[in-house]
Amino acid sequence: MTPEQFEVKANPALWERLGMNVERFSGMPKMLTEAFRGIYLSQKNRPARMEYFDGMIAELHSGRVEELVTAKDAGRPVVGTFCVYVPEEVIMAVGGICVGLCGGSQGSIPDAEKVLPRNICPMVKSAFGFKLGKICPYFQAVDLVYGETTCDAKKKTWELLDREVPTHVMEIPQMKRARDKALWLEEVKDFTSKMEEVSGRKATAEGIGAAIRVMNAKRLALQRLNDLRHHTPSPISGKDMLLIQQIAFYDDPARFTANVNELCDELDERIAAGVAVAPAATPRVMVSGTPMALPNWKLHHLIESAGAVVVNEESCIGTRYYKDLTDESTATVDEQLSLLTDRYMKIDCSCFTPNDDRIEQVLVEYRASGAQGLIDYCLQFCHTYNIEAVKLREMCEREGIPFLAIETDYSPEDVGQLQTRIEAFIEQIRG
Ligand code: SF4
Ligand code: SF4
Questions:
Q1: Is the domain of 87 the same as that of 222?
Q2: How many separate domains does the chain show?
Q3: Which residues belong to the signal peptide in this entry (predicted)?
Q4: What percent of the residues of the chain are helix, what percent strand, and what percent coil, each to the nearest 5?
Q5: Does the Cβ of 315 fall within 6 Å of ligand 2?
Q6: Residue 148: inside a domain
Q7: Which domain covers residue 145, as residue numbers?
Q8: Nearest CA to ligand 1 atom 2
Q9: Is residue 197 assigned to a domain?
Q10: Counting ligands in written order, which one lies closest to the CA of residue 123?
Q11: DSSP 8-state secondary structure symbol assigned to residue 277
Q12: pTM over 0.90
């Protein structure tokens, strides 16, 4: 597809039906079209199979939303989420659909700042602003939002969000002791009851088992893709990988898995034929830290425009979402919920204390990816990731790993300053 052929499609009738502010939203597809052409379609030598994922962006505000509305009409609940700590399998087991809600855009922040304090993280403000301004079709389509208590900004915002859309909050423990797991298991059970109530369907062992298999297959496909991109030279850009990981949160899981595996087949062929996105000598950078919700492409675009390639994301838009699978060998609902709890408790979000497993995990992924430097990405006011960067820096100093900590938001204001810092970092790696 040439950049000129690409267009994010509009569907004002559908948006009207969802109660959106159609007039305000109508400029969005054009803005996204231009951004996507400039940031994504201008890349050279992309894998042909990226066409599917480009198509998902073209259908972001139309086709995929229509699919959700059709599912709702058929009685299937749609649940919006902001965190990878949601047991998606439970939503799927009652016939529901789980969609990650975007909180990655500057455009909705002024809406939120009319209500929320200014000095909280941009992800929370962006997400809340999308709902207040009625400028996100996904937010308008969801029957229920799943919120969690991973940080103060989120847990207090959910109280206000609940006035706009039903919001179910789960208490995420902040330690990983046996009693914390017991608490979270109770929360998972409550969430299961909530989903049964919303859907009018029982979460059976058969249903949960099938959902676990679907999600394991999806996570395995993403693991396969991430392993392939670790090859030197990398057969796919970090920007394309980021895009796929973002699409993972709103696409149909089975269709997504099939397309990721087809892309992997192509990457196998590219590696065998020596086809890469950049020469083997291109500096390789790994990114860790806070997740980057769609359409937050700022950091990857800066790094790759500066002549490096991003080879791994230790992030919830990255390995934290797919590094762990769930044991499939259980028979009862109670066993399944317990094993799901085990799986989710392995996510090393910075809300946990202590959280040294994450530091170890970053090192393992750094080594596996063949990276030559680590950039830790932190959203402004995200205290847990920001403070955890101290331990990451210490680990990098100990291991002789070049390290750069970046704290930013979604505005373009600091782009020049970031560009200078990133270019200097890449020069340092080049030696
Ligand atoms: S970083 Fe923590 S709070 Fe954010 S999505 Fe990941 S697990 Fe959830
Ligand atoms: S990025 Fe940090 S501050 Fe923002 S919502 Fe996530 S955990 Fe909270």
A1: no
A2: 2
A3: none
A4: 55, 10, 35
A5: no
A6: yes
A7: 12-175
A8: 349
A9: no
A10: 2
A11: S
A12: yes
